[in-house]
Write the structure tokens for this entry.
Amino acid sequence: MSWSKRRERLRGSLAGRAALGAASLAYGAGVLARRALYGVGALKRRRLDARVVCIGNLTAGGTGKTPAVLLAAETLRQRGHEVAILSRGYGRRASKKEVTVLIDGRHADWRACGDEPWMIHQSLQGLGVPVLVCPDRAKAGGLAVEAYGSKVLILDDGFQHWRLHRDLDIVLISARDPFGGGRLLPAGDLREPISALRRAHMIVITHADRVPAEELAALRARLESMRPGVPILESAHRADHLLDARADRRLPAEHLSGRAAVALSAIGDPLQFEASLEGLGVKLAQRWRYPDHHAFSERELRSAESLRGGLPLVTTMKDFVRFPDSWESVLTGEVYVLGVKLDILRGRNAWIDGLDRLAREAASA
């Protein structure tokens, strides 16, 4: 049973709600204590000889950080800046002290680095952007500076990572669920109190196209009151292309328009993935959803194969990474991977100028 289902079951009883509430209080106390230790200098933050851009959020999953990390890296590389990406590597099979490096021309198994870093690396092929994976992001960042001459470091999902000093904190807020139910984990989905937004240097509202205009305006007004003077951008996740997994070739995103297909995913926000497919004119006959970061087994793919009725199967890049090596012999017919990009709808100049200014400061330092 997934955590979300267990939590819903707990919410159904008074004792369960009390347990969740107590756990949230304990979690919150731990978050505040850790923040205080860094605030008084008992725990030290490390500065590196590079500028650090943090892309993170307040809630657990669902804001679309990975496309934002990709867009930041592409924006900086298009302007000639030397950039590297630092990732924790959730679920990777490697020593916590080991730094795994993904770079053009070097092969690595996704299990050694985690699904998201591997996906980032694959999406940035040819741009010369190293992806360094280690829970100790300061150690990984130091290696990026020394070995690859990186001037700007993108800290993936690092808003709650205090050890590494950063120069620009970009916080993503989903328009569909901006504050995780207003409660800290595990009762809600907040990683920190909402007041943590005071640390943000830029706020990006994601999925801005998925809510009514008046709801978006109200969220924007609230954010402006909480963080006056800080750029507040609006964005949407757009389908960019379909990858024919069997032929390893890119096709137009509308390739399946007007056809029936099945969707298979194990991500934080499967509804967004499915809505993207429907927006492309795909008629979803089946939707299979697994917990975030789930590693698919051959048995699970066989089950999907037996039920899909010969229809095209569409998954995400993050999920395709976690398919077993035998997937081609299990899944017959058409298998596609949906490629997604982040599109800045409002505030694009603020995005470009903010990143470019930081990179130019790094180059002149």
